[in-house]
């Protein structure tokens, strides 16, 4: 009896140490969470390229280095260039809200609303509405500038995190399969369940990025070019916002181009407004309707409402990275509950039918 009690004490102490060391370790790495997260996501996205190149080179170190160079050229350098342009354009757009062309269009739009026979009965406070619209426009530009500035405001920390991401990305590319298998063996849920969770994580991350990069990139590019041709201030900013909103199913980037087209029509810019609305309905929206089912396929087996809520919730909690982290957490939640339901069904088999 005493030996059994001692074994229980040793086991409890071991698990206490295990939990404590694990929590302290993850707390120590919390600063680099998003760097490691994006390294894992990018490694998953480029894993097919790694496997293809590795079949030719047969050298894991060389293959990982080549893929890392491709990632830098295709993703990181363009992102730095676009970020630099966005900061400059956001500042110009912010300055034009009060005294520039954007401010003039806002005033014309508000005068049109005030003089409209039906809307005049609502007794709209022109000054208050002007202030609210200006605050929204400033909020958009401030968000972009603040987000990009926060990434680089502490140059040393930014360089360290960026270096950690690249370093981890190299090893995730080279040893990703072995790391995933080792993690699955260590998890107390079992190897098969661990592989299932990892596969769901990888599928959701890959599908979300495909939708954002391909659909969002196409819609944002088309929208930015459309805004540039119709003379709207800050086409690069609005194009970026369309890419950002394209991850939201159902609404998408129409939250940007639809109000722009309506405002142009209300301010007397008929051909510009009609062009934006027509192109938005028949070109930009069609990109989403045609490509989303092809790109998503069976990778993300979630209801559109859950994707919508998890995307917005992820952005609210985790910032910009939440547009992919939110759906991943939702997919993992569904997978865990599916496994729970399966295990519960195995423990409680359906009663046999008695012959009548």
Task: Characterise this structure.
With 356 residues, the chain is mainly α. Helices cover 83% and strands 0% of the residues. The chain contains 12 helices and no strands. α6 packs antiparallel against α7 and α7 packs antiparallel against α10. The longest helix has 39 residues.
Strand content: under 5%
Structural class: mainly alpha
Order of helices and strands: HHHHHHHHHHHH
Helix content: over 70%
Number of continuous helical runs = 12
Query: What is the rounded Rg?
Result: 26 Å
If you average the pLDDT, what whole number results?
76
Largest beta sheet, briefly?
A: none
Number of strands: 0
Provide the low-confidence segments as ranges. none
What is the distance, rounded to the nearest whole angstrom, between the alpha carbons of the first and last residues? 53 Å
Shape field: elongated
